[in-house]
Give the backbone structure.
Amino acid sequence: MRCRDTTIRERTHLRVAIDTGGTFTDCVYLAAGKLHVLKVFSTPADPSLAVLDCLAQTGEQSAFDLRHGTTVGTNTMLERKGARVAFVTTAGFEDTIAIGRQTRSRLYDWFAPLPNCLVPRELRFGVPERVSAEGEILRTPTEGELDALVNALRHSGAEAIAISLLFSFANPETERRAEAALRCLGLPISTSHRILPEFREYERASTTVVNAYLAPPMQNYLLQLERCVTKQYPGSRVDVMQSSGGIIPARLAAQEPARTVLSGPAGGVIGACHVARLAGFERIIGFDMGGTSTDVFLADSAAGGAQRTNESVVAGVPISLPMLDIHTAGAGGGSIARFDAGGMLRVGPGSAGADPGPICFGRGTLPTVTDAQLLLGRLDPESFLDGGVQLDSQSTRQIMREQKSSLATVEDFSVGILRVVDTQMEKAIRVISVERGYNPREFTLVAFGGGGPLHACSLARALRIPKVLIPAMPGALSAVGILLADLVRDYSRTVMLAENAIESIRDTFAEMEQLAATEFSREGLQGTALRSIDIRYRRQGYELNVPYASPASAVEAFHRLHQQRYGFSDAYKPVEIVNLRLRIIAAAEPWSPAYQEPVPGDGHVALYAERPIFFDGKFLPSRLYRREAFSPGDAIPGPAMITEYTSATLLPPGCRAQVDSYRNIVITVPA
Amino acid sequence: MTHTAADPAKPDPVDLAVFQSAVHSIAEEMGAALRRTALSPNIKERRDYSCAIFDGLGRVIAMGDHMPVHLGSMPMSVQAAVAAMAFAPGDIAILNDPYAGGTHLPDITMVLPVFLPSHDQPAFYVSNRAHHADVGGAFPGSMGPAREIFQEGIRIPPVRIVRGGNLDREMLDLILMNVRTPQEREGDLASQIGACRVGEQRMLQLAEKYGEQNLQPLVEELLDYSERLVRAELRTMPAGDFSAEDWLDDDGVTAVPRRITVRLRFDPAAASLNIDFSGSSPQVAGSVNAVRAITLSACFYMLRCLLREDAPATAGILGPLRLETPSGSIVDALPPAPVAGGNVETSQRIVDVLLRALAQAVPGRVPSASAGTMSNLTIGGVDPRTGEPFTYYETTAGGMGARPGIDGVSGVQTHMTNSLNTPIEALEYAYPLRVRRYAYRDGSGGAGQFRGGDGLIREVEMLADAQVTLLADRRKFRPYGLQSGEDGAPGGAWVLKAGTTEETEIPGKWTQRLSKGDILHIETPGGGGWGKR
């Protein structure tokens, strides 16, 4: 991080990243150029206890630069435990926060549950006012009308306020007046022209409401954490990971909690990108397979790194802030396989979860992906979680035989389950690659999570991806990402200008940069500003984001990108500028793990067993290796399996694995 | 490929699942391509389109989860195109004729034959359909109160828009010359062509992956599978006849109500269903005539909702169904009857009637009537800011009928449509209009043990003189409640002329030139209640 007092601070502060997970809280830190990893049990009732525990376990007494990945935001959304939010909008539009886009989520289900709006009816308030598309104030509330609003809110029992008026991004004056009037209530206020000054009223309002909904719990949590940390370790600072993959000071995060909803998963993406880049891979598809679901994402260094989106939906609620574009498929290791009424094999979305879990864990009675892996010899009963869980092959085989339907053998059934689940993974990867105009063959598959390395090679083969990377330290990848992420703050504004007015955006950009500089300097930071614009053909319903250096270069880049993404472009067609975007980045201090000169080897030190594993219709004798016993330069051919504490990498015949200088496993997959 | 123990030639449950997923994802990818590249808000913002894959016999094998009203009608369009022309590689057909499998003229369909290297006949067809905001005719938006289909816009039989890989510029010019917003149409048509090509590429890759000779057994198994799902469900239904009727208020020409009547005959032993619409009104002078394709879509929709599984929409679902529609009736119109409203209004009433009959067979599994009208609003004129013509089209949702055990949802699209609203800020940028109110219509849902969802209120002010057309129903005949639940409130609409204070009520099917400053106020119906309060 480039701070004003860089020299002093970097020498005395220990940079540490702590990522709260469901079961474990992961901690990584750099000491004397070396990366240390700690794992403690999470403390769901008060996640900060595990964080402080981690800090204590480092044994350091100095001040910390603590960077935190938190699940407080996500869990508050999922459990619907946020603040009672009052929603203030243009009179006549109070219900729009509930109406949304007036669609139903399940097309052929007459019994879909009632939607659960974050703002109950009695907390929706209208202000008599109107701004036009051009930013002209057509009607402004009188002082009396604002007083009435304040009084109505005072007795509503609201704990936070979200203000989102129509076209407030085009002219925020009325929103500011309403905000000023409501200040006297002493409640946290989120205003749409600050949170998301962009057009499309429902998505802007929804984002603003999420921010207000999360404000009290996140402020409590983050500010309390900051107090505890600075009290115990004076001079420390606390930063938080945002859903966009950038770090932000805790105090700003507490003001804009909507930006940190997917804090933890963002760490995993950034971690995977860093590790892959060190290993020499600039274009990657990330594949993180867990117990109930699987996350996939795409990153291309030439196109600005990990792909981001402004159209996320979290726990059923749209949030239109920049977030890493993580696509989730509803299948993982615990997904249940069954034959439906028409006789087709289905896997997921039902999951055996932790209880009862897969059959092989001893209590389950329904076949899962994990059971299929076991019967095909792809789980090593002894090394699985260091032998911490006994796997029951016998009863798994018996129950699977009873449920295999018309399939000839339990192996056919198991192979079938894996084929079906791989098909779902393949579909998810196509969504983030092919549907976005990228060819997966030009990427490297980076696999992690409990199940990723088991499925990676077959998936790579199906997508014709030539290389697979299994990163070192897969269990702490998310914390590593948080440790290495840049400090980033995003700003945006809808302008909706014709091409011939493009010159006028210079002033708006200058204004945005001024605001950014002020906010950054308040935190003692300096950053580099990156300008970009969202642009589209006039009257088109969809805009593309391109870097902005000059009007001409941006327009040219747009035509090129349109051609690449959609297969056509027209340099003579008029365009319009929809949004301006500004991203301020203070780069994190780079770090490279220890480089070890590779020494060609066959990995025999790591070899610990030979077992039959099922590949392509039959069991083949296969070698089992312990990952931690490998040295850089070791190379082994498939069929083989490489085991580690939380995961195992499957190497089918024809594939070849090599351990690189940073202890990543790089697999070559034949076409 | 692995095989079942029983029949070595038949694809097993795994092959089936993998193949089903693959073709479905192709239909979804076509949809994603179409949405991303389309020019008009109607396709991008409202998502009024569908994409599907067909086998060489024109049987649908995969359809994206898009618009239910296209379920049965897309296949009929493809069959009409296949019957009408001898396709050569690189051709793409275009059509919108409702009397050739279309729904109404604004829905333009494209069909691309997929030729595999060793075949001289198409092995597959890929197709997409999108609602265009204007296709010419007497009224902007092509949804006005016409008396003949010729007044509703340009009618395109199956013809080639692309020949041997090259765009037929003459055909395109002919179409564009007949519409009000040619630039926007050209952009949308280009994205439809692009989406067809995405589908073609992916089908060719699929054939390469599987081997051409292995595809047909998979297709047959997929169709069989869907049929097995439906038959398994039909075996659980009570035997017997279940009849119902409901009414359209009028046809927009006279005030005479029009009847739709149906008889469902379930035969669980044969696992079959016979649906007979005999007794429905003859076709009418106004535009609420539904072609048979729409009636088939409604039946397809009902069957799909009845299935407990998330079943793929293939031709197999219709296997156990026998559908009888009286020719020349309001549910099976003949040319030159106008049909714009059949797609959006009558289609919903057909569903209402089907569900009313179904509720007698399985009362605990069927919701009360939903709004039953799409309250279509079309506004066209010249935008004073640019001097260019514009056409705006929007449907306003109503209340969902109460379900046994749960209230109906308020202000939500139901049954045959699921198009999104246009964001107010997007529409005010694009058109000389100002939205003044958008709210729930309190108390409009029918009371009952479970309440029907409320309808919506929407007010739009004209910022320029414009031709305004409304196409709505459920004014006289309210959305029914079930099991003694009360009916939902009827819909309504009013015009407030600029500078006056008196609102004039307007009929459901109406067109008029409004002036700058006039305000249109629409209220949509609530859903019916369920069970005695």
